[in-house]
Amino acid sequence: MFMPGRNAEEERQALQKEYRRVESICLELLPADPTLREACTISVQEVQCGDPDCAPIDTIVTMMFPSGGQGFFSLPMECKEATLEHLEKAFPPPEIVTKWFEGIDTEGEWPPEPEPPALRFPVGAFVLCRVGPTDWAPGTVIQHWYREANWQPGMFAPYKIRLEDGRDIFAPQDMDPVIRLNPNKPQQVQVDPVETLWSE
Questions:
Q1: Among candidate residues 69, 101, 133, the one where a domain is terminated
Q2: Which domain holds residue 63?
Q3: What CA–CA distance (Å, rounded) separates 200 from 15?
C-alpha cells in the first residue's frame, strides 16, 4: 500500500543518521582534554548554498561550549559524502577549539583565508597585456595577487605586470582576452598550462 510521505520520512531518518555519524567523528577529533570534550556540543546540518561558485549543498559543523564560545567549519558536500579524511582536513586546530572552550573570540584566526586558485603564468613570464580595445603591450609578470590600498577587502588582481615601456599595470582577470603569453619572446621560466577559475 502506498503511504504518502513515507519516502520523505525515510530520507529524514537517513539524514539524521548521517548527522550522528559526523558528530561522532568530530567528537573523536576534539583535543584530548576530557573537560573540553564533556563540555562540547556538536551540531551538524546541511545548508543550500546560493553562490554559483560553491557546492549546491554544504555541511556545516558547529561546536558550542558553556562559556559562550563557539565556532564552525564547513564541507562543500552533502553530509553522507563526508569521510574521516574530509573532516580531518577541515577540522580546526586544537588551539582554536581550546579558545572556543575558554570563550575567547577567534575572529581573524578562524576560519582561515581560502587558498587562491592557481594562475596560468608564473612570476617572470613574458606576456602580452591588453591595454586598449585592440592594443596589446609586452611585459613581464612581477607579482601574483596584487592589490591596492584603496580596494575593498578581499579584492585582488591576479597579476601585476611591468611593461617594457616601464609602466606597472595589473591584469584584472586570468584569461586570454586580458593577458596571454608573448609568442615573440622565448620564456626564461617554465610555463605549464593550468586550467583555473579565471581561464576560459
A1: 101
A2: 6-101
A3: 38
Q: Hunting for cell 606597472 — which residue is that?
A: 168
Closest CA to 159 of 170, 148, 175: 170
- Please tell me the distance from the alpha carbon of residue 133 to that of residue 130, in angstroms, as a whole number: 8
Whether this prediction's pTM lies above 0.70 is answered by: no
Owner of C-alpha cell 586550467: 195
pLDDT, tens digit (0-9, with 9 covering 90-100), for 74-110: 998 999 999 999 999 999 999 999 999 999 999 888 8
Same domain, 82 and 155: no
Angle at 123 between CA 122 and CA 124, to 5 degrees: 105
Same domain, yes or no: 196 and 135: yes
Number of domains in the chain: 2
- pLDDT for the residue numbered 55: 63
